[in-house]
Each structure stands twice: as C-alpha cells, then as structure tokens.
Amino acid sequence: MRPPRLVRQGASAFARASRRLGPGLITGAADDDPSGIATYSQAGAQFGLSMLWTVVFTLPLMAAIQIVSARIGYVTRKGLTANMKAAFPRSVVLAVVGMLVLANTLNIAADIAAMAEVLRLLLGGSAHVYAVTFGLLCLVLQVFLPYERYVRWLKWLTLALLAYVAVVFTLHVDWWQVAAAVVRPQFPANADGRSVLLLIVAVFGTTISPYLFFWQAAQEMEDAHLVAPHAPAQVRYHLRRIKLDTIAGMTFSNLIAFFIILSTAATLHAAGVTQIETSAQAATVLAMFATL
Predict the structure, then answer these.
(1) For the chain, what is the HEC assignment?
(2) Which position has the higher pLDDT, 282 or 206?
(3) Can you tell me the distance from the alpha carbon of 47 to that of 196, in angstroms, rounded to the nearest whole number?
(4) Measured distance CA(148)–CA(79) in Å, rounded
(5) How does residue 288 score in pLDDT terms, banded at 50, 70 and 90?
(6) What is the pLDDT of residue 230?
C-alpha cells in the first residue's frame, strides 16, 4: 500500500516539501529561544569565530537523539514520560520529570523575561507588564487554539529566525576565515581555559536540551492520534518523513545559531565588546553599531 498523498497532485514541490516539515522544524526553531540566543551571542562576543565549530559539532548528535525521540512518540503514540513510566521505577520517573519541570520553568521564565525586555526596548513601557501579557497569551493559545491550527502558525513563524542570517550579509565577513575557524578550530591564545570550557558546555547544553526530546515526541504523538493506525508501508513512509523533518529542523536550528555567533563575532567581538549577558543587551549594543 502506498502512503497517502500529503497534497493534491498539482501542488508545487515547495508545497509538498512544506507539508512534510512539522515537528522537527518547530522543535529545531524552539531551540533558538531567547536564552539560547543570549548564549550564542556571548559565545561570539567573547571568543569571536573560535566558537563556530561547536554548533557544527553538535548537529549530528542533536539530530540523532531527536530522531529517536520522535520515532518513540510516533510508534508508541505516547510521550516520553508515559514510555518512561512503563519501563522504569516510579522513583526514576519522578526524579527525571521533576528535573525537567524545574529546568523548563526556569527556561520559560528566562525566555518570557527576555521577550518582555526586547519589547520594552522597541515600545517603551513596563517590562513586567509585557512579561505577564506574554505568559497569559501563550497559555490562552495553548488551551483554546486547536492543535492543528497552532502548529501551522508555529511552522511559518520559524521563518522569522532568518533575520539572523540576513544580518550577517549586511556585514563585512571574511568567509575564508570563517571556514578555517570551522574546519580547524583554535582556542583564543589569551583566553582563560575555564571560561572557554564553561562556554562550550553552555553552548552544548542550550543546543541539545532535554525539553526538546519531550517536545518533539509529544508533537509526533499528537500527529499520530489524528490518523487511523497505519499499514506497514505507511509506517515506513512516516519514519522516513520523521528522519527528513528532524534533520531539516536541526540543521535549520544550528544554522541560525551559527549566524548568531558569526554576527556577534563580526560586530561586538571585533569592537572589543566581550561581555553579553542577555539577548536584549546584545540587541541594544548591535543597535548602537547600526547607527554608526
């Protein structure tokens, strides 16, 4: 049995490809959240081009674990927590889920605070009011907006991240030097080894984040519940789709991270600004350079 056609016969190649992208693309884009952007900005500002290799190195690792998580969600039609509950003792599940809840709470708080601060930079007003508004808006959308429509909007909103790519092409970048930094990475000569190691761990941690495993598995589970049980040929088709979707999504995610590091390296690091703590601070400094 052939897998069902995803779009009508006359649809363009772009339409067919876009229909195959979903959970993997959205999960990859979610990895470039405000707290992640702050980490990548700090990497570029503090150590310049020497940190570009990190996002290239993590790509296959990230794609592999995300493909496994997505397949678990699709095949079992259960999230990772439900699968862990069936395979591990209750104490192990509670410990893992407890750490995940704590990490997610802190990460969401940091993201909402960063979003609010950026909006304050653009419009003025109170960052606290914006933070509460963002939190309530996200909650209302997740509760009242149907899953299919919500996912459709999220998929197209990922295109906003291409702005980081566009920024780099407005700068003067030595691409041969960029290629050399990726192929033959070297640590800055006068850098503190401890600081370099901490930043590498931070980049690895923000790139390969546990909440992404649970997120993509949950999305594949939701998508699987929308259709009847598949025949073997259809299952093979969807497993191939998951692989291509995930590889595309993780490549997109790390490509954006690459350009964030590159843009801050070509501007902030080149100008001697080496300490960036938040994405809003990076935006403020970059805005100052844009007016020069």
Answers:
(1) CCCCCCCCCCCCHHHHHHHHCCHHHHHHHHHCCHHHHHHHHHHHHHHHHHHHHHHHHHHHHHHHHHHHHHHHHHHHCCCHHHHHHHHCCHHHHHHHHHHHHHHHHHHHHHHHHHHHHHHHHHHCCCHHHHHHHHHHHHHHHHHHCCHHHHHHHHHHHHHHHHHHHHHHCCCCCCHHHHHHHHHCCCCCCCCCHHHHHHHHHHHHHHHCCHHHHHHHHHHHHHHHHCCCCCCHHHHHHHHHHHHHHHHHHHHHHHHHHHHHHHHHHHHHHCCCCCCCCCHHHHHHHHHHHHCC
(2) 206
(3) 8
(4) 18
(5) low
(6) 64
> How far apart, in whole angstroms, are the C-alpha atoms of residue 170 and residue 112?
29
* Cβ atoms < 10 Å from Cβ of 253: 29
pLDDT digits (tens, 9 = 90+) for 248-265: 999 999 999 999 999 989
Is the pLDDT score of 182 beyond 80?
Answer: yes
Residue 189 in tokens: 């000569």
For 69-117, write each residue's pLDDT tens digit: 999 998 888 889 999 999 999 999 999 899 988 988 888 888 898 888 8
The CB density around residue 91, as the number of other CB atoms within 10 Å, is 8
Opening angle at CA 277, ends 162 and 174, nearest 5: 50
What is the pLDDT confidence band of residue 283, given thresholds at 50, 70 and 90?
low
